[in-house]
Amino acid sequence: MTKKIIKSPKLKGIKPFRSKSKLGEAPGAITYIGNRRKQVTAITTINYSESAYQTKGVSVDMLGAIFENKQTSFIDVVGISDVETIAAIGRKFELNNLLLEDLVDTMQRPKIDEYEDYVFGVFKMLYLDEHYQLVIEHVALILVENSVLVFQETEDDVFGEVIKRIENKFGRIRSRGADYLFFALLDAIVDNYFVVLEDIKNKLELLEEEVYDNPRKDVANKIQLLKKEILRIRKWIFPVKELINRLIISEHPLIKKETKLFLRDTFDHCSEINEDIMLYREMSTSLMEMYMTNMSNKMNEVMKVLTVIASIFIPLTFIAGIYGMNFDNMPELHTENGYYYLWGVFILIFLGLLIYFKKKDWL
Predict the structure, then answer these.
(1) 182 and 143 in contact (C-beta within 8 Å)?
(2) How many CA atoms lie within 13 A of 126 on its CB side?
(3) pLDDT tens readout for residues 296-318
(4) Is the dihedral of CA 335, 338, 342, 345 positive or negative?
């Protein structure tokens, strides 16, 4: 007996969560998963100490000199789709291939992995572009001795203030090591979550006013889109609190006790962020319920007006129907001015019912 194969329907606009090229590959295979292919990887280093500061673009071969000086280095790698360059950087710093696999996977959930010689973290960098549209960018941080490597998809990031603090020779960051730089970059990512959530809050308040004042059909679509955006943000933000806590309780030698004090402050920020995003999620759900309730009330108001109009015309239609019958022996038909009397009755019934409905507060 031949088995019948039933193909699942193709749904427009739905893409597979992971690239099919990843299927069947061995763990540690470096395969880029994302939308920004054919990027040229650019590497910029910022080397600094309390008394010195230098920034320059470098090649992969020049990265070996990083270990020769005792300065703290911020190594910014922009463009992660070129897996050959990423693999070459990994060989320079002797990074595990499993780490590199997660580094080039833009769908990787936030995580922290501790290795013997370095600490690896994957996060999502959220910010608003010039058109106030949400941008979610994959970013990886690697803390090694005296250096922090940052791998990101594009040049746009949230690290501008950190770089300004590095340029300021009187800043605290110049007098501390790479673990504090790791914290500063992570703190910049977390602080920018507040900006994104503030934008979500403003959108919710505007939609709330629209729901109260004029619940149009497109408002429901706006609420649904915003709800999806909140869920997407929650997916990338919610795990960060636990990851920060792991860094605080970590006994890794690269993370100093003094830096953990600053990480506790970031942990508090994450707690506040998680509470806010849960609140906004509930608000978006309540907004949809409020919209449905208001639309139902609006429909009820329409039905009430139609019912009142129908109630007024029922007795008028009844009287008109009686005198519309074609009987010869109907005395009222021969009454002088009977037509005008009937109109008077119609008007009295109409006014009487209006007054009655008004007193009952049905109008």
Answers:
(1) yes
(2) 25
(3) 877 888 888 888 888 888 888 88
(4) negative
